[in-house]
Amino acid sequence: MANPVVDKLSNWQNDADSADTNAPVFSTRLGTGEAGDLGGELRRLKSELRSLSLSMTWEHWLGLKNLAATGNVAFTYVGATQFRVNDNFTASNRNVATVGRRVKACITGSTLYGTISAATFSTPNTTITVVWDSGALDNTLTEIMFGPEIKVLSHGYLPGVGTDDHHAKVHSHSGDGSGAVSHSSLSGLTTGDPHTQYLHNALITTPEAAPSQQVYLPALRR
Fold it and tell me: Which has the closest alpha carbon to 152: 203, 211, 97?
């Protein structure tokens, strides 16, 4: 028999230490089979937490109160590469929508994976642009989940490595805007030498420094 309790994870609030708005409240009837029955609530809790355990890599913001306390977080389709959320996801104390962060989009019949390329807040919404691995967003969007926070590397994270050391020599022959580097600056190599390993093993220190097919560290698994 189906569980009679219908509230799910997206209906819950993380406010136990303040408003404490989650059911059951003192006035909730706890008769067996009713929406507030204690046994059903406990079974629902186990079920929701078990489901969450299968996707702990992803942050679920859907349904939480937004910063302005004007409503619950919801995601709205804008276009094939854009969605909107009724909250400030660029706030410095949260850093949810950061460039380079992985996202997972749930649409009818499919799941999309992509990387955030831009995020702009204009009261009361944040508009987020994503480069999808494949496919495109559509108006059946129900939820966006956010992957682990990324940290863009700088030389400060690499003790003993200087700005001009080999790892930063991402370059191209075509001058594609990724920071072309002359062969003379790759020590020990001449124009005719193979040097693809310098691109293959290079560390991207800013999103803008990445080649046309952008790569960010760390590499994240789905």
Answer: 203
